[in-house]
Amino acid sequence: MKRPVALATSFVAAVFLTSAVWAQDATYVERAWTGDRPTSQAGWKPCANGTCSSIVNAPGLVVRFQRREQTSPIEGHEHTTHIWYVIDGEATLITGGEVVGRKEGRPGEFSGTDIKGGLVRHLRKGDVIVIPPRTPHWWKEIPSGIGIFQVNMGGDAPGAVAPER
Fold first, then answer.
1. Fewest Cβ atoms closer than 10 Å to its Cβ: which of 4, 59, 81, 129?
2. Do the Cβ atoms of 89 and 151 come closer than 8 Å?
3. What ranges do the domains of the chain cover?
4. The domain over range 26-153 is classified in CATH as 2.60.120.10
């Protein structure tokens, strides 16, 4: 009996805390993607390792389209979960494994020079990948560009507005 009560209490607390943080109106972008480009009013802007069109940019949450034309350095985030949906193009992504030459970067982030023992995946249009916190990831090969719908969640979500202190 204690377990169901504890789970219910945790769920109610999570809903309450989430509603307190997001007590604003919904963000809505009509026809945000037309099949070959975003129609977001923000348009394409440079961002880390590519160009982005942001929809939501708030503490702990980033929702955006991203276009990558080049590979990126190996990276990982202590508190961020990535959810990526490939909307066009293809690329080779390596996740997990051991980071070689690991260096601490900005607070909550790390980089490296190589990954040993990671999983190699060839992503293409229609694929979804979820990368949990502390999982190294590396866009190793991008032959002709890749477009992704990106959701970054967590305290150090890349591109997120820093919370006020």
1. 4
2. no
3. 26-153
4. yes
Residue 137 tokens, joined: 């990831």
Contact predicate 89/146, CB 8 Å: yes
Distance of CA 163 to the CA centre of its chain: 18
Q: Is the pLDDT of residue 15 over 50?
A: no
Dihedral over Cα of 39, 87, 82, 114: its sign: negative
Q: Is the model more confident about 162 or about 110?
A: 110
Quick one: pLDDT at residue 3? Answer: 46
Query: Two tokens at 147?
Result: 């477009």
